[in-house]
From TrEMBL, chain A:
Enoyl reductase (ER) domain residues: 10-385
Stored CDD domains: FDH_like_1 (cd08283)
Protein name per UniProt: Alcohol dehydrogenase
Highest rank taxon of the organism: Bacteria
Keywords: Metal-binding, Oxidoreductase, Zinc
From TrEMBL, chain B:
Coiled coil (residue ranges): none
CDD domains the UniProt entry points to: SRPBCC_8 (cd07817)
Domain Coenzyme Q-binding protein COQ10 START intervals: 104-231
SUPFAM superfamilies (alphabetical): Bet v1-like
One Pfam family per UniProt: Polyketide_cyc
Inner membrane protein YgaP-like transmembrane domain ranges (all copies): 26-86
Family, similarity comment: Belongs to the ribosome association toxin RatA family.
Superkingdom per UniProt: Bacteria
Protein name as annotated: Cyclase
Database matches in InterPro entries: COQ10_START (IPR005031), ORF3 (IPR047137), START-like_dom_sf (IPR023393), YgaP-like_TM (IPR021309)
Residues covered by region (Disordered): 1-23, 250-282
Length: 389, 282
């Protein structure tokens, strides 16, 4: 089959590789119909998440058709059209039973790697480096999905492939961001980042009762979508001082809830961007926590900071004094997709959430590197590979 | 730097037993000869590992054997012909201890019963090839050595073990007996986790490194890898108990293979691809 393989930093190649097969009894093989690029793939491609190996197949946001199932798969049938959660959960450990799926104890075969770095291992993630399991990803004709009964969700009739594909990763991540923010009716919510996850966080915040959402980015097209489709007020950080603007827009209080949908590769116009960039370059710091600093300073006293943008390691100069003295609440994590996906498919069906507009470019697997170049330069919202093309 | 921390067994109050000093502590290769053996072994190993060819493999095999002989101080040829080139002063013996606790989300009786059937152990302890129950207390163990790069070259290590304490659903204590190649002892306790979260498994394994200062020094180098392996074994035990399968990527496709290569059927027993990968990353 064809697959988009990592070949070194900034280097993807579309290659012919063997087809996947059932390895464990709870596996399923999915014929990929659509597979989207995601911001966190860029962290892999740009070399900020170590433990990638030459030849690894990337991609983790996808939907497709079940073509083969293992002997212990009970809920799925060949021919089912499914969307698959990017994060693997076994369903049997205490974390899965508590619906904290991205903390699964059993789905990462290389748990010892993050255990060294983090003290504990999170769940395995499809196509997301060896620290997160080393599983082959979805930018391919076929993919093997472990614990398939838990991670594959049958897409209801009448829902398009283009809408359902984002229920794999961007939608549950955005929805979880709003859910963790503990939005109370009438709250004003500020959201950093207007990519796919940010757009879904805006819509979810409204769904959960926010009265106003203020979205921050600098890409004109993303800001336009945030305003016209997702319904946010928008701020361009290249044009205004975000801290000042947020205070002015909230009667001097600051937003009640602040959501970071950006994470480790944040950019800004300020000095701290160059500070982080320099430290990152000499490996004294692994991430650029610009958005996190800004959110802590901007948030109202007693407010909540919700983080779904990915951080990998150590960060400097986070204003802990501000966070403590303002009595902020922090909540964060990789998405617990299995907890949210059934509900999200319903919201999509009822038209309460809108996701298909995220798909701006559809390409064949042969255009792998080209698609990522477009995405990396933020010239597109989401490139989606269609192996059938 | 000397490690001043106490072994965890003394803190936990479990596993405070010592393996008998019978097999691996017996030395019949002299220090000078052992240094040469190790040096030669390392040289051959590192050059062999860089080549993936058959010649490379043979170099690894010979290097691995010399390395083992030097590190362990136990030469099969020497013992066969009754030769002994040891200095009498070379007898320092350190005890190495590995502790690992984890919680398995299953009832204690179920967890204990699976473990107590010792034949099950090789299903998740990948360095074990086989465990045979000889009678109620005695068992025969066959293992591959710690470092998998050496494992192929060294073949297998076998020993007999005896259960010395058994409290059903609570505690198992065992010791190796009868001239074991690697003297070892261990204890596993099973306790209820709070709030119905299943069973806490507390394991302490102690082994005597191959005798002598050189042996001790070499085993210290290997210890992190060995410890890592034991911990991975226990993690796989949890996976198997909770989900009925062991998470793996062995046998999945990548751009490292061409489409023509038949992807080999993975077996539960030896996940050597995963293990090689692990040791590569250590
Ligand atoms: Zn993602
Ligand atoms: Zn789990």
């Amino acid at each position: 089959m064809k697959a988009v393989c990592y070949n070194g930093i900034g280097d993807l190649r579309t290659e012919r590789v063997p087809d996947p097969s059932i390895i464990n009894p709870k596996d399923a093989i999915i014929r990929v119909i659509l597979s989207s690029v995601c911001g966190s793939d860029l962290h892999l491609l740009n070399g900020y998440v170590p433990t990638m190996r030459e030849g690894d197949i990337i991609g983790h946001e996808f939907m497709g058709e079940v073509v083969e199932i293992g002997s212990e798969v009970k809920q799925l049938r060949k021919g089912d059209r499914v969307v698959v959660c990017s994060i693997l959960g076994c369903g049997e450990c205490q974390y899965c039973k508590d619906t904290n799926w991205s903390l699964c104890d059993n789905s990462n075969p290389h748990a010892w790697i993050p255990e060294k770095a983090y003290g504990d291992s999170p769940a395995g993630i499809l196509g997301y480096s060896h620290a997160f399991g080393g599983y082959a990803g979805s930018h391919a004709d076929y993919i093997r999905v472990p614990f398939a009964d838990r991670g594959c969700f049958v897409i209801p009739e009448g829902l398009s492939d283009e809408a359902a594909v984002f229920a794999s990763d961007a939608m549950p991540t955005g929805f979880m961001a709003a859910d963790l923010a503990d939005i109370q009716p009438g709250n004003i919510v500020a959201i950093w980042g207007c990519g796919g996850v940010g757009q879904m966080a805006i819509q979810s915040a409204f769904l959960l009762g926010a009265s106003r959402v203020i979205a921050i980015d600098r890409e004109p097209e993303r800001l336009r979508m945030a305003k016209e489709i997702s319904g946010a007020e928008i701020l361009d950080f290249s044009k205004v001082d975000i801290h000042e603007a947020l205070r002015e827009l909230t009667g001097g209080r600051g937003p009640d809830r602040c959501i970071d949908c950006v994470g480790m590769e944040a950019v800004s116009e300020g000095l701290d961007y160059y500070y982080d960039k320099a430290k990152q370059y000499v490996r004294l710091e692994s991430d650029r926590p610009i958005v996190l600093r800004e959110a802590i300073m901007a948030c109202r006293k007693g407010g909540t900071i919700s983080i779904v943008g990915v951080y990998g390691g150590l960060i400097d100069s986070v204003p802990m004094g501000a966070a403590m003295n303002k009595a902020l609440t922090f909540r964060m994590g990789q998405q617990h997709g299995q907890r949210y996906i059934p509900r999200l498919l319903e919201h999509l069906q009822k038209g309460e959430l809108n996701s298909s507009f995220l798909l701006t470019h559809k390409m064949s697997l042969d255009a792998g590197m080209k698609g990522y170049d477009l995405f990396n330069k933020k010239e597109t919202m989401r490139v989606v590979f269609a192996p059938g093309l | 730097m000397e490690n001043k921390k106490k072994p965890l067994s003394s803190v936990l109050g479990i596993g405070e037993l010592e393996p008998d000093n019978t097999g691996s502590s017996q030395v019949n290769v002299g220090a000078g000869e052992r240094i040469l053996s190790v040096a030669g072994g390392v040289l051959l190993l590192s050059s062999g590992l860089r080549r993936q060819s058959l010649g490379g493999f043979l170099t690894v095999a010979i290097g691995g054997y010399l390395f083992y002989r030097g590190a362990s101080g136990n030469c099969l040829v020497n013992s066969a012909i009754g030769r002994n080139t040891t200095d009498s002063t070379d007898t320092t013996k350190a005890l190495i201890e590995i502790t690992k606790s984890l919680t398995v989300n299953k009832p204690r009786e179920e967890v204990y019963a699976y473990w107590r059937k010792l034949e099950n152990l090789p299903r998740f302890m990948y360095h074990l090839k086989e465990v045979q129950q000889l009678d109620d207390k005695r068992s025969h163990w066959v293992a591959q050595l710690a470092d998998n790069k050496l494992a192929g070259a060294l073949g297998t290590v076998e020993w007999d073990a005896q259960i010395i304490t058994e409290v059903e659903n609570e505690q198992l204590v065992w010791k190796s007996v009868d001239d074991a190649k690697i003297d070892n002892a261990g204890e596993v306790r099973f306790m209820d986790a709070p709030n119905g979260q299943g069973t806490e498994v507390h394991a302490v394994i102690q082994y005597r490194p191959p005798a002598g200062q050189l042996g001790g020094a070499i085993m210290k180098l290997f210890n992190p890898a060995f410890e890592q392996m034991i911990k991975q074994d226990l993690r796989r035990f949890k996976q198997l108990m909770e989900t009925g399968e062991i998470a793996t990527i062995k046998g999945q496709p990548s751009g490292r293979e061409s489409e023509q290569e038949i992807s080999q059927k993975p077996s539960l027993k030896y996940a050597d691809a995963d293990q090689q990968h692990e040791s590569g990353m250590l």
